[in-house]
Write a structure and sequence with these properties.
globular, 4-stranded antiparallel β-sheet, single chain, Rossmann fold, alpha/beta, 13 strands
Length: 316
Amino acid sequence: MGAIWPTRRSNAATIWGYLHSRRHTPPRCPVCERPTLPRRSFLNYELHACPDCRLEFLDPQPDDSVLADIYTDGYFLGGPSDEAVQRRSKMKSATGDLYVDTLAQLVRPENTDLLEIGCGHGEVLLEARKRGFRVAGIEISAHAAAVANHRLGPRAVWVGTVENLPPSCGPFGAILAADVIEHVRDPQGWLVRIRELLLPGGILLLITPSLDSWTRRLMRSHWMEYKVEHLHYFSAASIRLLSERSGFDEIRVSPSRKVLTIDYIARHFDRFHVPIVSPLVDLFRRALPSRIAHRHLLVSASGLMAVARKPERRAK
C-alpha cells in the first residue's frame, strides 16, 4: 500500500510533522536489512546499530573530500624518521608472518597466487613470497604502492581499489584484506567483487576491528576503533552473515592477533584520543626505556579474523 499523503484540509503543522518523520526514518542494516537504532553521534556523524546481527555503521557516511584529508602520506603511525620507518616495517612484517601462517595452513603456497588488498608498504607480501606464494597487491595510496613496488619489483602492486583492477588480473587462489573492510562504503558489493577474483575453492582472509572484542566491551562508546574513516563495525555474527550473502561458505571467525609495540600503541592513543586511557598510556610510555617500548608484543586486542571459501564449481 502506498503512502497516504495529508489532504488539502490538513494544516501546515501536520504536513511538516509527516515530512520530518519521513526524513528521520532510521536506515536499514546493510547486512540483514532490519531497521536499526541510532547509537551515538561523534564528530558530526551518526552511528547506527542493528539489534539483530549487531553491525554498526555511519549514516550518513563522510564524503570523499573528508576521507581524502584523512588518507594522506602521514596516515601510517610511527613517525617520519628512517629509524621509525624501519621499526614500523619490522612490526608489520611480524604481524604479516602470522597472517601468512594462517594462509599456509589453508592452501599450498607454491601453487597459489595471492592478492593483498590494502597492502601498504608490502611487508606482508614480502613474507608471503618467502614462503613460496606468487604475490600481487592493490593499494589506494600511490606513495605506499611506490614503496611496495620498490621492495617487491615493478608492477607487483597496482594503485586503486579492487573495483578498478585491470581485467587481466587474477584469478587468485587466496586474497588477504587486513584492516580494509571497515573502510569500504559497500561491503557486500566489495565482497562479491573479491569472490569474482578468486578461483573456485579459493580462500579469503579478512581482519577487521571486532565489536565482540574485550577492548570494545571495556571502552564502550570510547572504543579507540571508533573513527570517522571506519564506516562499518562488525561482530562475528554480522561478518559471517555478510560473507554468506556475498556467496562464500565454510566461514570461520576467531579473534585476531597482531604484533605491536608499546610505543606504537601509545602513538595510536595519542592520535585517536580516549578519555583517561590516552593520558595513562602516554605516562606509561614515557616511563619506559626505549628498548622495552619498542619490543615486539603478541597482542589479541580489538580485531577478528574471518576465513571464507569460494564454493567449488558445481558438477554438471
